[in-house]
Write a structure and sequence with these properties.
282 residues, alpha+beta, Immunoglobulin-like, 4-stranded antiparallel beta sheet, 4 helices, 16 strands, elongated, disordered N terminus
Length: 282
């Protein structure tokens, strides 16, 4: 190989040591490895940049909040930690039928109370009197006093007081004026003395008819209030119908069926000798 005069060593080896090193690396590393080497170098540079950036952030001053002062015996609210309640047994919903605790009594409904005294017409206490209002019954004491605790179903019921031998006293619809929880005092005076009806029930041939039922054919407050005892004929066909108020009355008699009863002619209270003729087959 020929060289020009005066060119020097550099002219003979272009690029110097850099060119020589480049040539050696080009021969030492396979060409497919070069892209991988470049990628790794780039990743290392990116990682170094991130580390430096986080160092600068950590060096910045941070705001420090002082712990607030608390009163004596009280911990600062900033140190308080909410504590979850301890799980307990599940409780039914309040509006569920079985939600009410067994220890809580049901609401009490106050009932009306009725008390008073029953007197005979002459002013003596009616010691054997009975007082009825609706389904409630009371017997008077020796001093004639009584007391009734009324149930809700009393409604607008009538009150009746009765003692054998005297006409009853009636207070219509007294229950309507008795409000729940109220207390009332009454003074009741019985009516005049009562009378009896006496008679017999006979067959058409004159034989006595035993066991026939005898009733008043008309208004009978004692029967309506359940205070009239059943009256029936004895073995001789006789009967005594007590506690009849003064006036005219019609008596009916029947063996089994009331709708087949036989009726007497009107008779005054206190009369005797009333006879009702009947056919035993009726």
């Amino acid at each position: 190989m020929a060289f020009e005069k005066g060119s020097g060593f550099a002219a003979r080896r272009p690029g110097g040591r850099a060119a020589e090193l480049h040539a050696r690396m080009s021969h030492a590393l396979p060409k497919p490895v070069l892209p991988l080497f470049v990628a790794v170098a780039g990743a290392l540079a990116l990682l170094i940049g991130l580390v430096r950036s986080s160092g600068r952030e950590s060096s910045r001053p941070r705001d420090v909040h002082p712990i607030e002062e608390a009163a004596a015996g009280e911990e600062p609210s900033s140190l308080r930690v909410a504590i979850a309640p301890t799980p307990s047994e599940a409780k039914p919903f309040p509006d569920h039928p079985e939600a009410a605790p067994a220890s809580v009594p049901a609401a009490r409904h106050e009932l009306a109370r009725l008390s008073g005294i029953v007197l005979r017409p002459e002013g003596d206490p009616a010691s054997e009197a009975r007082v009825v209002l609706g389904a409630q019954h009371a017997r008077c004491r020796a001093d004639g006093r009584f007391e009734l605790v009324l149930e809700e179903q009393t409604g607008a019921g009538d009150l009746l007081a009765f003692e054998p031998g005297y006409e009853p006293i009636l207070r219509p619809a007294l229950g309507a004026s008795l409000a729940a929880g109220s207390t009332h005092e009454l003074r009741l005076v019985l009516g005049p003395s009562t009378r009896s009806l006496t008679g017999a029930v006979l067959a058409r041939d004159g034989r006595p008819l035993k066991g026939w039922t005898v009733e008043l054919d008309g208004i009978d407050p004692l029967a309506d209030f359940g205070l009239r005892e059943r009256v029936s004929t004895d073995a001789d066909g006789h009967f005594v119908f007590p506690d009849v108020p003064a006036g005219l009355h019609v008596v009916r008699a029947y063996a089994e069926r009331r709708e087949l009863a036989l009726r007497s002619a009107p008779i005054a209270a206190g009369a005797d000798g009333l006879v009702i003729f009947a056919d035993p087959r009726e």
